[in-house]
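Colleagues,

For the teaching module next term, I've prepared a clean inverse folding example: a structure given as tokens, and then the sequence designed for it. I'd like students to try predicting residues themselves before seeing the answer, so please don't circulate the second half yet.
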């Protein structure tokens, strides 16, 4: 399923490079947990970068497209000397809690004329929450371990709107300001402090990770800023 979704996204992005009536954009989003998400995990803030490509339907105030995003809802670094039995040198244990999203995009532009162009937007797709950890001797060394702790998929929808601010006559593009509300079906995930390491008290075996897995929808308010360009 993951491979199929990725192939669809890559195919759509590559087609847009050779067609007319396409727009390509990139966005920085800042998600703020709300609702059930905030109740389960606190006021998490999730930075995210997304790229999208939309097709402008000729003679219609409508765009349809696809968006791919990557965010992180917490990272933690531990320096420990008890990860492996018989090895007492200090090691770095880095853990990242990641979010990967893939969604179809629908935009509607009301007939408002002026120096800015407002739009309404809706997205429907999926989101993947997953946590990975790496153990290294130092920040630049090859990982001794590089594994996934947890991974979970859920349905995702977003609704909101924003404005285009043209960048000028010589640049075929716009500054993009947007505010969206995201809702998902419930899924399992980890936050920054949800994993602890317990070494073997007898010092005979390697220790183990203990997980405090949370489950809720990932409801967020997402203000964003971005830039987009028309492709001829």
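(Answer key — instructors only)
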């Amino acid at each position: 399923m993951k491979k199929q979704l990725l192939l669809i996204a890559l195919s759509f992005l590559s087609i847009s490079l050779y067609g007319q009536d396409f727009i390509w954009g990139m966005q920085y989003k800042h998600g703020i947990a709300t609702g059930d998400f905030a109740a389960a995990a606190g006021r998490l803030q999730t930075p995210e970068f997304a790229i999208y490509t939309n097709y402008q339907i000729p003679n219609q105030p409508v765009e349809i497209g696809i968006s791919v995003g990557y965010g992180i809802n917490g990272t933690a670094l531990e320096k420990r000397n008890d990860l492996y039995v018989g090895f007492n040198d200090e090691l770095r244990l880095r853990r990242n809690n990641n979010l990967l999203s893939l969604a179809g995009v629908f935009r509607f532009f009301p007939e408002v004329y002026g120096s800015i162009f407002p739009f309404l937007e809706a997205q429907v797709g999926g989101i993947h929450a997953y946590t990975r950890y790496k153990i290294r001797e130092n920040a630049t060394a090859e990982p001794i371990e590089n594994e996934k702790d947890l991974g979970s998929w859920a349905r995702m929808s977003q609704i909101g709107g924003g404005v285009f601010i043209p960048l000028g006559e010589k640049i075929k593009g716009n500054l993009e300001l947007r505010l969206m509300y995201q809702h998902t079906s419930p899924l399992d995930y980890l936050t920054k402090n949800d994993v602890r390491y317990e070494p073997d008290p007898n010092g005979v075996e390697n220790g183990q990770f203990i997980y405090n897995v949370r489950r809720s929808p990932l409801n967020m308010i997402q203000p964003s800023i971005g830039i987009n360009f028309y492709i001829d």
